[in-house]
Amino acid sequence: MSATAGPAPTLRLRLAARGLDTVTLLVLPAALVILALFLYPFLYGLWLSFRPKDGSLLGNYGRFFSDPFLYDTIWTTMRLAVPVTVLNLLLALPVAFRVRLMRRQRLLTTILILPITLGTVLVAEGMLFYFGAQGWFSRTVMTLGLSSGPVKLTNSYTGVFLSLLITGFPFTFLLTLSYVTGIDSSLEQAAATLGAGPRSRFRHIFLPLLLPGLAITFCLSFVQAYSVFPSAVLVGEPARITRVISIAAYQAAFEEYDYSMASAIAMIMGFTQLAVVVAVLASRQLAYRGPAGGGKG
Predict the structure, then answer these.
(1) Cα distance from N-terminal residue to C-terminal residue, the chain
(2) Which Gene3D superfamilies does the record associate with it (predicted)?
(3) Which of 122, 183, 213, 276 has the fewest CB atoms within 10 Å, counting from its CB?
(4) Which residues, 6 or more positions from 22, have their beta carbon under 8 angstroms from its beta carbon?
(5) Contact by Cβ (8 Å): 183, 165
């Protein structure tokens, strides 16, 4: 005797079976807003980059890569963003390990992330007064007899590097701290019980678990540093040593009024960032392939 077929599931049940319940659908309006705010400008800029003044399809890109004054901005930006990101990670990692063991963790964390509340422009203005030729740093160095003349660290590569380091460290530190505190402390205790020293525990337990998370931290910090513009103008030398790719895009748009070329430079800027991010995220798969239960890393 054949069993009778039950009633067909409703649309709501079918969507819920695929993970699209009522709560999930509430995210849909926000997703549409994000698409409107980010996806449309990107597609419009990409389309505009293929409409140069000379009428050729790839004219803007050919002009960019044939002019050393333009394509050298990629290398200039990389010379700033990559070392700053690496140094911020190297500084944030030991500080995060120290902070996680302190009682007043929130107070120290608040102090460390204070520069992020100032903004790039205020930090740059402060650096002009402190690291300028007549600033406190220069006067202190001359008073101590360490230099016979004024020491000027602004309007140079060093000035932009320091500015990115100051404004980028809080962001990198917060991300690193979240991964460090997310690792189960019982793993370290078990290793210590078995006789592993601090270096061995860091090398064989913490580092493998942290590397995937540090890769994500590197990517986010790199993207933040790569988009440098105010620092390169205020405390750098925007016509020469710190002429980054964002300055080239700005000049094309607001000095030459060539929005098609500016869009092409912006696309190149985005794809060069994406290439570094993809390379870093792809390499993290080689770091740790064990179970994912060790923590956030």
Answers:
(1) 57
(2) MetI-like (1.10.3720.10)
(3) 122
(4) 12
(5) no
